[in-house]
Amino acid sequence: MKMAAKTEEEYRLLLEQAAALIDGEDDWIANMANISALLFNEMNDVNFAGVYRFENNELILGPFQGKPACVHIALGKGVCGTAAQTQETQLVPDVHQFAGHIACDSDSNSEIVVPIFNKNKLWGVLDIDSPKLNNFEPLDQKYLEALTEVLFAKQN
User: Fold this and answer.
1) Burial classification of residue 70, based on how many CB atoms lie within 10 Å of its CB (0-12 exposed, 13-18 middle, 19 or more buried)
2) DSSP letters along 58-126, please?
3) Closest CA to 100 of 115, 130, 80, 114
4) Which residues of the chain have pLDDT under 70?
5) Domain ranges of the chain
6) What is the predicted pLDDT for the residue at 11?
7) What would the CATH number be for the domain defined by 8-151?
8) pLDDT for the residue numbered 50
9) Contact at 8 Å (CB) between 113 and 88?
């Protein structure tokens, strides 16, 4: 299924797969583990896909696929902390040009981080890294934001 870039149709299928994976399951760890595995295996040129949950006013590592990662990230620090603080998606074509970037994996060159909300409150962030520069584009942002809305949709 992997192609040079994800198409609208491939992303629609990915959303359906994600919804099916979490359907009927309330355990956030199980759900985020499956979503992380799905994204890691289905997205192109990805070396990290996972979540950080927002707890005690910081981000704490949750389920992911990839190399070991930073465990605690302060609000406003790095791409993840910035996404959490601003509550806006951060699409970064070159992480080395991002002020305050935290290099958990020195192989990462581009990144997209999408805030996750549960009951209209920040729950955490979805973090996806790539070893390629400019690996993410607005189409990725559109569908990854849609994916985060599915995660807690039945609980809201």
Assistant:
1) middle
2) EEEEEEEEES---SEEETTSHHHHHHHHHTS-EEES-GGGSTT---SSTT--EEEEEEEEETTEEEEEE
3) 80
4) 1-5, 101, 105, 154-156
5) 8-151
6) 92
7) 3.30.450.40
8) 97
9) no
- Of 58, 42, 37, 59, whose CA–CA distance to 50 is shortest? 37
- Residue 113, both tokens: 């981080």
Q: What is the rounded CA–CA span in Å between residue 142 and residue 21?
A: 20
Q: What is the pLDDT of residue 100?
A: 73
Place of tokens 């993840």: 80
Distance from C-alpha of 78 to C-alpha of 148, rounded to nearest angstrom? 20
For residue 106, give the amino acid letter: S
d(CA 1, CA 152): 27
Structure tokens at 69: 């990662």
pTM: 0.92
CB neighbour list of residue 136: distance below 8 Å, 6 or more residues apart:
91, 92, 93, 110, 111, 112, 128, 130
**What single-letter DSSP state applies at residue 56?**
T
